[in-house]
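User: tokens in, sequence out, please.
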């Protein structure tokens, strides 16, 4: 466990705690679903990792709850990555409707890329298209590459995520019930 979620420094502890929390919250179960579909669905699977933190918060929401380390809407802590569901407004192309953040050129570029991928996938079952970074299918033939959606989107190796999910797998799958 400590090889996959190391904690030799305070920074590593925070990174590993976030990774484990994310894996247990949604990462592992999504991976499990995709693995089942990849093995039995007969169609390619395209996996993404959304990594783009929201830009500067401009205010307008209630103050953060207690226990946020003194962060306020005016002085939030520095982002440690993207928050769950932040990609929705990018994919839907409605950044302008959320006036609580200081959207910049990188945000609008990512939104256009995501809209292109999602529209292509809806129309053809494949997210790829002209002027979009190539998004390989998620399979062992290509080393389980994942599309990292960020200011500069790119396909990248899955890294330790797959190892972490394989490590977690026996804790969640009951004997005799493996798909």
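Assistant: Sequence out:
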């Amino acid at each position: 466990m400590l090889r996959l979620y190391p904690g030799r420094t305070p920074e590593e502890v925070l990174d590993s705690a976030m990774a484990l929390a994310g894996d247990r919250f949604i990462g592992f179960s999504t991976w499990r679903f995709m693995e089942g579909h990849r093995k039995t669905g007969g169609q390619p699977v395209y996996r993404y990792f959304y990594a783009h933190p929201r830009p500067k918060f401009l205010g307008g929401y209630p103050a953060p709850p207690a226990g946020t380390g003194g962060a306020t809407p005016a002085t939030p802590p520095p982002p440690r990555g993207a928050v769950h569901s932040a990609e929705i407004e990018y994919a839907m192309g409605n950044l302008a409707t959320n006036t609580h953040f200081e959207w910049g050129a990188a945000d609008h570029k990512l939104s256009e890329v995501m809209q292109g991928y999602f529209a292509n996938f809806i129309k053809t079952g494949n997210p790829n298209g002209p002027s979009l970074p190539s998004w390989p299918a998620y399979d062992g033939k290509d080393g389980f590459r994942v599309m990292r959606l960020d200011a500069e989107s790119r396909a990248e190796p899955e890294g330790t995520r797959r190892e972490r999910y394989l490590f977690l797998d026996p804790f969640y799958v009951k004997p005799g019930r493996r798909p």
